[in-house]
Every structure is written in structure tokens, then in C-alpha cells.
Design a protein that fits this description.
The chain is α/β, with parallel strands linked by helices. It folds into 2 domains: 27-242, P-loop containing nucleotide triphosphate hydrolases (Rossmann fold), CATH 3.40.50.300; 245-309, Alpha-Beta Plaits (2-Layer Sandwich), CATH 3.30.70. The chain has helices at 14-22, 66-74, 116-126, 132-144, 160-172, 190-203, 216-222, 259-263, 288-297, 312-328; strands at 28-37, 40-50, 54-59, 81-86, 89-90, 101-104, 178-182, 208-213, 225-230, 233-239, 245-253, 268-274, 277-282, 302-309. The strands form 3 sheets. It has a 6-stranded mixed sheet, with helices on both faces. It has a 4-stranded antiparallel sheet with strand order 2-1-4-5, with helices on one face. A hairpin with a 2-residue loop joins strand 12 and strand 13 (277-282). The radius of gyration is 26 Å and the shape is elongated.
Length: 329
């Protein structure tokens, strides 16, 4: 055995120690990722980063490209262009990195003739565990996913809610860094769906979690960040707590106006009548104070001027309906 002297042993100062770990790349990085299937672009130019301690909701209507995106992240499907990096390493060059991921597809990969404990034992061995490690891993995920009451039951005899829990358990059995869940609450009753959301929130404390869904309640119930995909492209990416300002103003005046009169103001870009008020977007770098001054100067009788806010549902519907309107035109 080679002995190292004190001079040979690498040391870190406290500054270097923290700098080393803070400089580590995020767990998941997607750079300009696209996928073409049968000549059709299913996902286009997707950029996405995610690290531990976060639950990201991947939201979109059916056919938006969510499942294709998850398959590329998990290494099941190779991107047509772009790169998927796990801890800074290209998944295409080192596919073994997929072992650091736990993946639950939309249809859980269950074997109806196996008991819960037998199936999870099998999954643990597939992930490289052996001996006492298998027993410890299975015991841990059964407790974590609250499967103790059904551990000896056949998978084919379980309710849909318990089957989904077993599906999540198989994705956790090897303690992955990143957990990818595709529609885990699909087809569940309200109570079962709430229980799955609670479990996902708990997982997000120690892991990086991506939850794909078309249900707004799933995202609002357990995610801290939301990405909206539509027609294969990212249309929104932000923290749920930051939802609010839309870049528009809601204005109510006493005068009867049309859109052209608003656009005659040098500070106004667009104006749209909404109920008894107007939704106004300003030209940069104009401010709401300048708009108020212009309204007062023209004697329109300013009654209300406020920043317009939007919830997740409004943003989601606006993204989907804008494309439908453009397609119809």
C-alpha cells in the first residue's frame, strides 16, 4: 500500500471547500433538446434546469410533449438534438447515469401475479442491490410509501391508488437523486390523488422531483415550480409563488372609448376591452404613472388603474387558447 505524507494529501481551506460544492452543476440540465418522431417535431428547443429540494410540475394539455420529455430525461428515448446532462455529464455518452434516476411511466410497470414485497425485491435487485441491502431497501420504501398493510397482497388485487404507490416505490427503491413521475394521480379518486400529492411533496424535500400532469390541482398541491409545455415548446417557467404580474394593467375610465383611442397614446402598446374595464399593455419603458397622467390630461375620468394579476389557470388557458386562435386565423 502506498503511504502518503502530509505534503502529498490534498487539503481544502474552508473557502475552497464551500466553493467546490457550490460550483457543482445542477442535477439535471437540458440544453436545446428536441425530438422528432415520424417527421413531426414533438419537443422543440427545450432548456430546463433542476436541482435537489425542488418539485417541478410539468404541465400541458394531452399531446403537449410531456411524456416525450420525461422519456428523454430518464434515458428511455434519445433526443434528436440537444443534450441531457445529469450532474454535468451527458446522458448519451454515459447512459449508466440513468441509474441515478427513478422513473414512473404513465402506466406503472407492475406484474399482477407478484406480491408487493416480491415485486419491490425484484426491482431492488435490478438496480444492483444484493443480500441484506435488498431487505433494507424494500423495508424502507414500503414504510415511506405506506404500503405495510398490503405488502403481502398480489399487485393485481390492489386498488388503483395502491398500485400507483407501488409504482412510486419501485422508482424510489434505489434512492435516486432525481425522481420522474408521469401522471401519478391519473385515474385516482380525490382522496387517493390527495395522498399521492402529499407523498410527492415529502419526496421533494430530499430529491429533485419532476411531476408531469395535465391537472392544475396536482401542480398547485405539491409543486414549487411550474413549466408549461404547449405544442412541444416551453411557454412558461417560474416559481408558483411568483405567479401574479402579467405585464398588463387593468384600467377603468368614465369615458366611452375604443381600442384605437388607447393606442393613440404614445405609452400604450395594446388595449383590449374586458367587461367594464380595459386590459392595457404599455410600451417599454413607459410606466403606469405616465399612463395615468395621459388619461387625466385627456379628461377620460380615471376610476381605477392596477397591475393585473393572473393565477395558474388563467396563464395555462391563455397559452392554450392563444395558439388555437392563431391556428383558426
Amino acid at each position: 500500500m502506498v503511504q502518503l505524507s502530509g505534503a502529498d494529501v490534498p487539503t481544502f481551506s474552508q473557502q475552497n471547500y464551500y466553493g467546490f460544492f457550490m460550483s457543482q452543476p445542477e442535477l439535471l440540465q437540458m440544453h436545446q433538446v428536441s425530438r422528432v418522431l415520424a417527421g413531426r417535431t414533438v419537443v422543440a428547443d427545450l432548456n430546463l434546469n433542476l436541482d435537489r429540494g425542488s418539485v417541478l410540475g410539468l404541465l400541458g394539455v394531452n399531446g403537449a410533449g410531456k411524456s416525450t420529455t420525461l422519456r428523454m430525461i430518464s434515458g428511455v428515448l434519445a433526443p434528436s438534438a440537444g443534450r441531457v446532462l445529469i450532474a454535468g455529464i451527458d446522458l448519451r455518452e454515459q447512459p449508466g447515469l440513468a441509474r441515478r434516476l427513478g422513473y414512473l411511466p404513465e402506466q406503472a410497470p407492475l406484474y399482477a401475479e407478484l406480491r408487493v414485497c416480491e415485486y419491490l425485491d425484484f426491482c431492488a435487485r435490478l438496480r444492483g442491490a444484493s443480500g441484506a441491502k435488498v431487505t433494507r431497501a424494500v423495508t424502507r420504501v414500503i414504510e415511506r410509501c405506506d404500503l405495510g398493510s398490503v405488502r403481502r397482497r398480489l399487485l393485481g388485487n390492489l386498488s388503483k391508488g395502491f398500485q400507483q404507490r407501488v409504482g412510486i416505490a419501485q422508482a424510489l427503491v434505489h434512492e435516486p437523486d432525481l425522481i420522474v413521475l408521469d401522471e401519478p394521480a391519473s385515474g385516482l379518486d380525490p382522496l387517493q390523488a390527495a395522498q399521492i400529492r402529499t407523498l410527492v411533496r415529502e419526496l421533494g424535500r430530499e430529491h429533485a422531483v419532476i411531476l408531469s400532469t395535465h391537472l392544475l390541482s396536482d401542480v398547485q398541491g405539491c409543486c414549487d415550480r411550474v413549466v408549461i409545455l404547449h405544442q412541444g415548446r416551453m411557454r412558461h417557467d417560474g416559481a408558483l409563488q411568483q405567479l401574479g404580474e402579467t405585464g398588463t394593467l387593468r384600467v377603468r375610465v368614465g369615458a366611452r372609448l375604443d381600442a384605437q383611442q388607447w393606442q393613440d397614446l404614445s405609452c400604450v402598446d395594446t388595449a383590449e376591452a374586458v367587461d367594464d374595464s380595459w386590459r392595457v399593455r404599455l410600451r417599454a419603458p413607459a410606466t403606469s404613472a405616465q399612463l395615468a397622467e395621459a388619461i387625466v390630461a385627456r379628461g377620460w375620468g380615471l376610476q381605477e388603474l392596477r397591475t393585473e394579476s393572473a393565477n395558474l389557470e388563467e396563464i395555462f388557458l391563455r397559452i392554450a387558447s392563444a395558439d388555437e386562435t392563431a391556428a383558426a386565423a
